[in-house]
């Protein structure tokens, strides 16, 4: 449905009622935020920017209330569904691998002991402090990426080693398959967090892990997702 949205018209289970409800809700929120003069979150910033910027470049981008709603929905769904799905797969993997579960628990208790009564914050859960937990999250994302195939549109003609892609071509990256490449991940179906421990992760190919995409348009919520999980 993502690649060919027009097919939803032929599937009774897919209708636009939920979309219209979400859109209506965000329009009400935007209307309310316009009346407020203090910016508190990203939606407030977008609304404020929309009202303040009046340059030709900004107008040429076609920024409108619909654009803001689309971005708000993207943050809302992307920040909820993907993280909860990842957490579900991680818990399942840990249930199937009690040794990993025990090791993760030990790492958590060690961090809490060091912290004492101090608040758990961004620095506390930095990868250097919880390497095995981070490795488990990476491995879970490798086996079960929330997005099976990130999509992009080629912006210019491209050729490399006999392969050519025309400008405007719709490209889908098969993350599920790429993350199971046996040449990169031996025994690819097994849950082995040690693949992503610091001493091993640096030996992986640069684009071997594709669950978050690559480049300037990779997942903007990557750090949020890790910390949330």
From TrEMBL:
Q: Which InterPro entries match?
A: Cyt_P450, Cyt_P450_CS, Cyt_P450_E_grp-IV, Cyt_P450_sf, Insect_CytP450_Detox
Q: Does the keyword Cell inner membrane apply?
A: no
User: Which controlled-vocabulary keywords does the entry list?
Assistant: Endoplasmic reticulum, Heme, Iron, Membrane, Metal-binding, Microsome, Monooxygenase, Oxidoreductase
The protein's location, in the record's own words, is:
Endoplasmic reticulum membrane; Microsome membrane
Q: Name one Pfam family in it.
A: p450
Residues annotated as binding heme: 219
Which domain of life does the UniProt lineage start with? Eukaryota
PROSITE patterns according to UniProt: CYTOCHROME_P450
Which family does the record assign? Belongs to the cytochrome P450 family.
| Protein name (Swiss-Prot/TrEMBL) | Cytochrome P450 3A21
What is the protein's species of origin? Orchesella cincta
């Amino acid at each position: 449905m993502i690649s060919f949205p027009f097919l939803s018209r032929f599937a009774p289970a897919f209708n636009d009622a939920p979309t219209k409800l979400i859109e209506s809700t965000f329009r009400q929120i935007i209307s309310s935020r316009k009346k407020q003069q203090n910016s508190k979150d990203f939606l407030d910033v977008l609304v404020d920017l929309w009202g303040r910027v009046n340059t030709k470049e900004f107008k040429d981008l076609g920024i409108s209330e619909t654009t803001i709603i689309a971005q708000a929905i993207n943050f809302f769904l992307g920040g909820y569904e993907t993280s909860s799905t990842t957490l579900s797969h991680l818990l399942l993997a840990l249930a199937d691998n009690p040794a990993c579960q025990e090791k993760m628990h030990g790492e958590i208790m060690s961090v809490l002991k060091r912290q004492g009564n101090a608040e758990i914050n961004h620095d506390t859960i930095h990868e250097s402090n919880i390497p095995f937990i981070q490795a488990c999250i990476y491995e879970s994302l490798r086996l079960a990426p929330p997005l099976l195939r990130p999509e992009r549109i080629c912006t210019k003609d491209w050729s490399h080693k006999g392969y050519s892609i025309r400008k405007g071509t719709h490209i889908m990256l098969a993350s599920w398959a790429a993350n199971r490449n046996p040449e990169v991940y031996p025994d690819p179906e097994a849950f082995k967090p040690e693949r992503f421990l610091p001493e091993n992760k640096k030996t992986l190919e640069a684009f071997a892990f594709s669950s978050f995409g690559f480049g300037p348009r990779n997942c903007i919520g990557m750090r949020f997702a890790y910390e949330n999980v």
